[in-house]
Write a sequence for this structure.
């Protein structure tokens, strides 16, 4: 019975890991291509945004570059649990974008909140499962 639980947990961990890596790729792709007119996954209505659409595009580009640096740091220091905090801040972007849109009277593409919700939750689940896995390994191998 314990062996079945262990296999089940390994399958769940594999799915969470795969989902995390996919979300990182989507986050980087979505953020880096936001500066492109033809390849972006978001719709930026330039008539509505005016000059403001460049602010949002540049913020997304910086976020993509930051994600690359954070991922490299987490793997170089063997601390993937830090992704919990990254996920938290990605979820905080939902509120920030709503505030940005309201203050500037600019409609935000409906895909952007879904984008941050998916990537944020993926980072949190990955960080939590990695933390549990690390704690379990430290407890059993001391």
């Amino acid at each position: 019975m314990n062996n079945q639980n262990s296999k089940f947990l390994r399958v769940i961990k594999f799915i969470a890991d795969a989902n995390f890596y996919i979300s990182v790729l989507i986050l980087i792709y979505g953020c880096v291509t936001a500066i492109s007119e033809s390849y972006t996954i978001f719709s930026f209505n330039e008539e509505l945004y005016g000059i403001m659409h460049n602010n949002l595009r540049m913020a997304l580009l910086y976020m993509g570059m930051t994600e690359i640096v954070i991922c490299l740091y987490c793997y170089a220091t063997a601390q993937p649990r830090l992704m919990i905090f990254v996920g938290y801040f990605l979820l905080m972007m939902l509120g920030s974008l709503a505030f940005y849109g309201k203050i500037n009277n600019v409609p935000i593409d409906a895909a952007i909140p879904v984008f941050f919700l998916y990537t944020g939750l993926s980072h949190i689940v990955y960080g939590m499962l990695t933390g549990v896995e690390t704690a379990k390994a430290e407890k059993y191998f001391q």
Q: What stands out?
A: The helical segments are 2-32, 46-49, 52-76, 83-104, 111-140. The mean pLDDT is 80. The longest helix spans residues 2-32.
